[in-house]
Amino acid sequence: MATPLSDPSLSPLKTIAVVGLGTMGTGIAEVLARAGREVVGIDISEAQAAKAVATLETATARAVERGRLTEQERADVLARIRTSTDLRTAADADLVIEVAPESYEIKHQIFRELDGIVRPETILATGTNALSVTRLAADSARPERVLGLHFFNPAPAMKLVEVVSSVLTAPAAVTAVTNLALDLGKEPVAVGDRPGFVADGLLFGYLNQAAAMYEAKYASREDIDAAMRLGCGLPMGPLALLDLIGVDTARTVLEAMYAESHDRLHAPAPILKQLSEAGLTGRKSGRGFYTYEAPGSAAVVRDALTPLESSEKAAGREVRSVGVAGSGTMASGIAEVFAKAGYEVVLAARSEEKAQTAKARIGKSLSRSVDKGRMTAEAAAQTLDRITAAGSYEAFADVDLAVEAVAEDLEIKQQLFQTLDKVCKPGAVLATTTSSLPVVACARATSRPQDVIGMHFFNPAPAMKLVEVVRTVLTAEDVHATVREVCGRIKKHAVDCGDRAGFIVNALLFPYLNNAIKMVQEHYASLDDIDAAMKLGGGYPMGPFELLDVVGLDVSLAIEKVLHREFRDPGLAPAPLLEHLVAAGCLGRKTGRGFREYARR
């Protein structure tokens, strides 16, 4: 009969063995030692153990330089860490954290050996992010003491720790490691055993979709990465992140997820296999999606795929005046952006009153900028003077660029483009801000489809730096060049993409949001834990449910339906929970209730 785990409050985890002294294991050892734990670092390679010690010496010396440790504290930290190549040195540990390579055979061998070394009450934790904790536990002599303890890289900096229970795990073991994580200054999230857990479960599906998007030559690696950084506020683009994680590691995680879920979104994109088998595994090899200065370097260097400088591209048409069609928040925001950049702007709506209301909104926005010291009162007045409000699209007769920002309804947009075709002068560029509708359908409503292009601004337009420039198969080269030049003048970062549902950002963002909803729907994790996991483990500025409530559940559902209809992938079908909330009128912050409830203003 297995010895029951003692009360963790009576037996705190004082001595901890870390098996595997790669980057993650070394980082975990540092975190533990700085929190006052005695640490035994174990690796089969003497060279790797020596490298870990050198890394710890460097990291703690840097902490002293930055005033985060004193010299005495540094000496104490280093004294609490000893290294070994013999697994038997884990005999006195209260907890063993295994962070060996992501191979079931290797991990199983370590756990089997530990069964004959450690005390009966010692907790065994695996750092896996892709393999079955339950399987490792079931093959152990004492499955009730086995669990997952998933730190994030770099362990000293990242706050999230996923505590993974199997159906066999004793509650006392979970309590003990949860208390340890809190004592380390981390934020533990309790999750069940499935590949990827919460953070990687959501993250790797998104990374896989980005790799597939690049492989399909839909957009360049630079544009995919810039779109997700600037459009979603992410710290890194997905392809750069894959290079950092390791293309081979990502492929392993996705293979494990796909074996469990059979969801095509988790089936590794073929390019991940091609790069892995060619040894192009990312930063660690010096080349992956990008090329680096040297193996292990973060410095990207120019290669054959690096885009040409703008001076080497085609010239565009001259644009001095801009027409903006619409009276909502997006239309007024776009008009403000163009006016700030020095363009003469005609802001036209279906009535003079609506146009004047939109201009008044811009006036308030400019006043806020003055109050915050971002512009002078004189500059704000000049900006507003450049905007002419009009109650008819006839006012677009002389504009060089017309940008529509009306309702996201194809019939309404097509009618508007028919009108623009009649009133705008020959050679004027006609742009749609649609986020989900086919640009070519707007173009075909005119007699000059070659002059039509997508300019997808992000809300709020004055603040968001990204514009997705969407070419159809009919768009003229100089029209594309014109819009790229204009984006530069209005200080926006333009990314190129083709005319398909979701473009770059929404095509990658909304499947991720949908998968988060499915996790809640399946009672795998709570809203709060999922939001915390993505903010702390993925560096996202907002958790998925915070973002869904801000965007609007009805808007989110509409985009997910468009993606599902276009790509016909069962994994893109909107989660039933989202459909139910929309049907109930729970649309997010705007209605006071979505995934969460909000105080009504």
Automatic annotation (TrEMBL):
The keyword Oxidoreductase applies. The lineage of its organism: Bacteria, Bacillati, Actinomycetota, Actinomycetes, Kitasatosporales. The keyword Oxidoreductase applies. Belongs to the 3-hydroxyacyl-CoA dehydrogenase family. Gene3D superfamilies: N-(1-d-carboxylethyl)-l-norvaline Dehydrogenase, domain 2, NAD(P)-binding Rossmann-like Domain. Pathway: Lipid metabolism; butanoate metabolism. Residues 15-193, 322-499 form the 3-hydroxyacyl-CoA dehydrogenase NAD binding domain. InterPro entries: 3-OHacyl-CoA_DH_NAD-bd, 3HC_DH_C, 6-PGluconate_DH-like_C_sf, 6PGD_dom2, NAD(P)-bd_dom_sf. Keywords: Oxidoreductase. Residues 196-292, 502-598 form the 3-hydroxyacyl-CoA dehydrogenase C-terminal domain. This is 3-hydroxybutyryl-CoA dehydrogenase.
